[in-house]
């Protein structure tokens, strides 16, 4: 087998420029700010001190001006949506700060921007940006997290006083896991079922004060503390129960639905479902930020594990008499290097996602279809990236042995802090199901009754509409696919066109089969819930392979943008490792469906091994190129302690060397 | 496809008796003790208070007499080796206590029993059992963890004073991660290279006092603190550096090697390697305890997630108007139920392992071969069980969403505490490599030079010697395999004989191919390190599939022991789910090697889905049957809070129901 080779050496700084991408200026700016501002993550502090520390840091971050990036220019912001996501993900070494900042500026501030109108913007945005008004995003309830449409908090309009009455009728309706609620929040954007004139208009959001200026809860607002969590203990998550709390009519964030003084309801969007999904869609930035931050945290964890693996030695090589660096072991490489390649792939997918968000946000005309596509993409990439983070950070911990278990080496905190990413801002399983339902709408002709499968609302909204639509570098991908060799050449597993075609083909086949299966099963008097549920593993898989294809195309597009041929060829090898380790992991399916034969399947495993060995000498440079701010790299095992020990031992073992 | 059915209902208490097994009396006794003794795990305490709490609890546990189980009868113990392992694993709800107890009685006490002689036993065992003498097991060093043979601490005999001088020549030689060292230990069993009369005799252990009676470090003993860890913060792990510390000649634990007053070295075992492995082999109980505890912690995590999944509802079923319990979703079942089935399988494998340990320990004659086999089995099952624990507890956390991230719901602590199990008491990857090397000795005729592959020492010791030797229920397994149907019947995937044959065949094929590959590669002037390293993924896989077969045979044997046909048929379905989900996960290999065809491969996936749905109604009863002590189940979501909320919401939604 002819395996393409890595360049003998390359300039990590140059690769860093390629990776910095479209928001290189923001990355450089944040790196500089972080160089001058100590923001220790507060590991080991008790909960109270940790929360206090992070609140102080939030004020300092506000003073730096960075949080203004994402707010509209006319209210003192910078109007740089993409930059705001990038700047947040760069806080990966202090995830309590990132999440608390995300709550304040992304979720709370973002909801006021997206769902409010001028009267809210002019009043609240400046104090939100400068942290005079710490706030909460009170959506999730104890009884309803994934199913936001079924929230139980009510906001009932009282025309006599021209007020809304916000109420939690029982414990399930209590707002739960709300960041900034337990300690610091003064106001909350509260999501509630809007009732007026005897009618229920579905979920809307209102500005509800929750604490007075001394920090005491207001009358009727019962706040409790979620207490200690697995991680993110610098964030004060709490629970809020409303006992008939009155707010003025103007508290309603009224961009997508308003109530007139007499109680008449008006909305620019017809249809409860469409209104709900439109409102939710404007809040997509939070989900994209979580994906970005999960990616950054993964890079930091990999940097620690790879630096350690590069210097840590264990077991003598009888041939040389030297102890072997653990990263020289194939088993160790296989733990870390395919994960590194996937991290590169997801980096480019994330960059593309942020770009699309930014461009849609700044577009002259609202493109409904593109917006729905962005939401689907964001859901899928968030799920895949956060699972990748959980798995990879866990692997990095194990790859560092006992040292990886010590808090001083950062991996425990990274693992604990990122762990919730797979279930907050959308539970990953629920998100993948959303993605699949969107893809299934392509097959709408094949179904008699879409409603029963829960697909109707996607079709009505023309959610996605076409299957296997190229997402990036469309022409390039087509050219590569067209030029791909036939089935007989073993080397073709390194052919990008062959790889792209294989991913496309997998997606199409899984989706086609799913649609056929659902159609068959819906005949007769089958219970539609059961039909869909019996195929849930298939549904989730369809979404997963779709995302894998989207990610690969983004990687290919990223390489195409890279002008320097040396850098491009480094990225090509990482892309090979990403693709081939993905195929290897899924070779059960490829073989089952006769997409590859047994000989080629074995060749893929061999190729993954060879690529690992090729990339191994460059592993540390590659991970450095991500440019994680140096403030975040504090683990002694990754910053010299281990290599100093190895030196000392060697000096002792061979004093006359 | 004809799928065998679960019984409509069964008696969970009866199943509990089956699972309690050979040490049912110990389990009952420990459950009773735990009912009367509050031992809260100390979540949320600061490190100092946590350590103090756990030390107090250790004294109370000592007072209960339970730790005496594993010590010899003639010194006040109960001589029940198996019972001591079982009793330790039952502390799964307070893992700091389990680990600190494991250090004190299992590792420290166990080393004194196994490596010491009468003079040590009569002096130290009583104060070890009653906690008057808290101690450490000082083996691992900063520079050498997995490679114990290369430890750098030295113990040099000085015939003039008849003392040993214990010394750490540099920082890599510092003892590290040592439990009981940072705060409480008074004495340590220190592993060091023994030098006498100018010769190095390899690793031996000595009793070295480290603190005086006021708790101050003794002269020359430099102790530091490992600080905060991911979990197990009730255990005071520390580092010890010895600066020419002198201990009397009698401090040497001299069962396998002694130094006479004039400095002459004597050992009953010839050969440095054999002596080293014999000494290490006597310490196997710690590894077996870790596997048992990982299993218990997994059961507790599954009980929390399954109880929550059974009551938690999300999304309305349009057909019924009710919200759906999340465990009714196939995707949720697939997360938890194959993991539950695997937990049953590993339960029986662990029971068998403990039984073998116990019987060998009590055997009249020492059976060297059986001992080596036990060590291999222990290594493999420890690796597989602790990885299963890490993965399953992580899955349980995610399956509980935000609630699973709150410390009050126990999963964060369970995850953090068990996380180190995959790398302590033997790094899992290193352990699997050991298992594989043992298996490869069967092929010794095929190699010219075993030494270069690191196999020589196993062959010399007749480590394992035969491949695919049945490990449990030998005759039954043979009968089932012989009666297995041919290849054409689709239902045969439920035939136990077919399943057993498939697992055997996989193991044999992977091993045969590995041996061939290594033999081919060792020809000529190939670098033997490279040869072995290039095949490391294959090596690890060989061990893994070997362990899978051993586990399946243990499950089959456990079912055979079960006299009640109803209970047996419940276990049969769990065994099916264990086997078929294992095959599904590995179907890439089975297809690649044409062990199953594409049609059968798809049938396996379908069967896993059906089994999940069959088992789902019984999930809570099944996990309850493990009999985890009720003291350990405190998560509000698993003890009524969630069902109370569901009731309240329903009462509010339909007041007139």
UniProtKB/TrEMBL annotation, chains A, B:
<dbReference type="InterPro" id="IPR055060">
    <property type="entry name" value="ACOX_C_alpha1"/>
</dbReference>
<keyword id="KW-0274">FAD</keyword>
<dbReference type="Pfam" id="PF22924">
    <property type="entry name" value="ACOX_C_alpha1"/>
</dbReference>
<dbReference type="GO" id="GO:0033540">
    <property type="term" value="P:fatty acid beta-oxidation using acyl-CoA oxidase"/>
</dbReference>
<protein>
    <recommendedName>
        <fullName>acyl-CoA oxidase</fullName>
        <ecNumber>1.3.3.6</ecNumber>
    </recommendedName>
</protein>
<dbReference type="InterPro" id="IPR037069">
    <property type="entry name" value="AcylCoA_DH/ox_N_sf"/>
</dbReference>
<keyword id="KW-0576">Peroxisome</keyword>
<feature type="domain" description="Acyl-CoA oxidase C-terminal">
    <location>
        <begin position="500"/>
        <end position="638"/>
    </location>
</feature>
<dbReference type="Pfam" id="PF02770">
    <property type="entry name" value="Acyl-CoA_dh_M"/>
</dbReference>
<dbReference type="GO" id="GO:0005504">
    <property type="term" value="F:fatty acid binding"/>
</dbReference>
<dbReference type="InterPro" id="IPR002655">
    <property type="entry name" value="Acyl-CoA_oxidase_C"/>
</dbReference>
<dbReference type="InterPro" id="IPR006091">
    <property type="entry name" value="Acyl-CoA_Oxase/DH_mid-dom"/>
</dbReference>
<feature type="domain" description="Acyl-CoA oxidase/dehydrogenase middle">
    <location>
        <begin position="136"/>
        <end position="245"/>
    </location>
</feature>
<comment type="similarity">
    <text>Belongs to the acyl-CoA oxidase family.</text>
</comment>
<dbReference type="InterPro" id="IPR046373">
    <property type="entry name" value="Acyl-CoA_Oxase/DH_mid-dom_sf"/>
</dbReference>
<dbReference type="GO" id="GO:0071949">
    <property type="term" value="F:FAD binding"/>
</dbReference>
<dbReference type="InterPro" id="IPR012258">
    <property type="entry name" value="Acyl-CoA_oxidase"/>
</dbReference>
<dbReference type="GO" id="GO:0003997">
    <property type="term" value="F:acyl-CoA oxidase activity"/>
</dbReference>
<keyword id="KW-0276">Fatty acid metabolism</keyword>
<dbReference type="InterPro" id="IPR036250">
    <property type="entry name" value="AcylCo_DH-like_C"/>
</dbReference>
<keyword id="KW-0285">Flavoprotein</keyword>
<dbReference type="InterPro" id="IPR009100">
    <property type="entry name" value="AcylCoA_DH/oxidase_NM_dom_sf"/>
</dbReference>
<keyword id="KW-0443">Lipid metabolism</keyword>
<dbReference type="Pfam" id="PF01756">
    <property type="entry name" value="ACOX"/>
</dbReference>
<dbReference type="GO" id="GO:0055088">
    <property type="term" value="P:lipid homeostasis"/>
</dbReference>
<feature type="domain" description="Acyl-CoA oxidase C-alpha1">
    <location>
        <begin position="281"/>
        <end position="440"/>
    </location>
</feature>
<keyword id="KW-0560">Oxidoreductase</keyword>
């Amino acid at each position: 087998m002819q395996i393409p080779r890595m360049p003998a050496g390359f300039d990590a700084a140059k690769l860093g420029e390629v990776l910095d991408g479209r928001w290189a200026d923001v990355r450089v700016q944040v790196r500089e700010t972080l160089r001058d501002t100590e923001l220790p993550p507060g590991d080991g502090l008790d909960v109270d001190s940790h929360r206090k520390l992070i609140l102080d840091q939030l004020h300092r971050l506000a003073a730096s001006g960075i949080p203004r990036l994402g707010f509209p220019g006319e209210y003192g912001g910078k109007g740089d949506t993409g930059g705001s996501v990038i700047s947040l993900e760069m806080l990966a070494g202090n995830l309590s700060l990132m999440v608390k900042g995300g709550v304040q500026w992304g979720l709370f501030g973002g909801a006021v921007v997206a769902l409010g109108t001028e009267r809210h913007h002019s009043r609240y945005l400046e104090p939100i940006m400068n942290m005079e008004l710490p706030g909460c995003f009170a959506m999730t309830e104890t009884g309803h997290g994934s199913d936001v449409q079924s929230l139980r908090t009510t906001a009932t309009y009282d025309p006599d006083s021209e007020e809304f009455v916000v109420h939690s009728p029982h414990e399930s309706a209590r707002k739960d896991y709300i960041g900034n609620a337990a300690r610091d929040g003064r106001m909350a954007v509260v999501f509630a079922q809007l009732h007026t004139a005897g009618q229920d208009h579905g979920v809307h959001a209102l500005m509800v004060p929750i604490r007075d200026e001394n920090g005491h809860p207001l009358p009727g607002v019962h706040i409790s503390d979620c207490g200690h969590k697995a991680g993110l203990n610098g964030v004060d998550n709490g629970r809020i129960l409303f006992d008939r709390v009155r707010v003025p009519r103007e508290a309603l964030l009224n961009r997508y639905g308003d109530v007139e003084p007499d109680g008449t309801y008006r909305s620019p969007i017809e249809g409860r479902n469409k209104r709900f999904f439109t409102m939710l869609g404007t809040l997509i930035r939070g989900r994209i930020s979580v994906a970005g931050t999960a990616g950054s945290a993964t890079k930091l964890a990999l940097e620690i594990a790879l630096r350690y693996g590069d210097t840590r030695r264990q077991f003598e090589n009888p041939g040389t008499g030297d102890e072997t660096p653990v990263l020289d072991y194939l088993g160790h490489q296989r733990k870390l290097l395919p994960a590194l390649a996937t991290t590169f792939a997801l980096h480019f997918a994330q960059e593309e996602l942020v770009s699309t968000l930014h461009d849609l946000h700044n577009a002259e005309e609202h493109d409904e279809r593109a917006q729905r596509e962005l939401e689907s993409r964001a859901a899928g990439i968030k799920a895949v990236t956060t699972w990748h983070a959980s798995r990879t950070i866990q692997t990095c911990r194990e790859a560092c042995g006992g040292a990886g278990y010590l808090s001083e080496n950062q991996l425990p905190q990274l693992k604990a802090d990122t762990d919730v990413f797979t279930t907050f801002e959308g539970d990953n399983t629920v998100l993948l199901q959303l993605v699949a339902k969107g893809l299934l709408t392509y097959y709408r002709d094949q179904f008699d009754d879409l409603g029963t499968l829960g697909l109707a609302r996607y079709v009505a909204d023309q959610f996605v509409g076409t299957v296997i639509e190229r997402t990036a570098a469309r022409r390039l991908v087509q050219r590569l696919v067209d030029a791909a060799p036939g089935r007989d050449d073993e080397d073709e597993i390194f052919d990008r066109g062959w790889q792209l075609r294989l991913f496309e083909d997998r997606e199409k086949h899984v989706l086609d089969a799913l649609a056929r299966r659902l159609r068959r099963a819906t005949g007769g008097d089958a219970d539609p819930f059961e039909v869909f549920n019996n195929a849930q593993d298939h549904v989730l898989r369809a979404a997963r392979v779709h995302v894998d294809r989207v990610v690969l195309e983004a990687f290919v597009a990223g390489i195409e943008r890279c002008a320097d041929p040396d850098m491009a060829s480094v990225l090509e090898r990482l892309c090979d490792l990403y693709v081939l380790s993905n195929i290897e992991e899924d070779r059960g399916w490829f073989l089952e469906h006769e997409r590859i034969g047994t000989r080629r399947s074995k060749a893929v495993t061999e190729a993954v091994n060879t690529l690992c060995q090729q990339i191994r000498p460059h592993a540390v440079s590659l991970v450095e190129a991500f440019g994680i701010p140096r403030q975040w790299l504090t683990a002694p095992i990754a910053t010299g302690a281990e290599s100093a020990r190895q030196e000392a031992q060697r000096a002792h073992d061979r004093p006359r060397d």
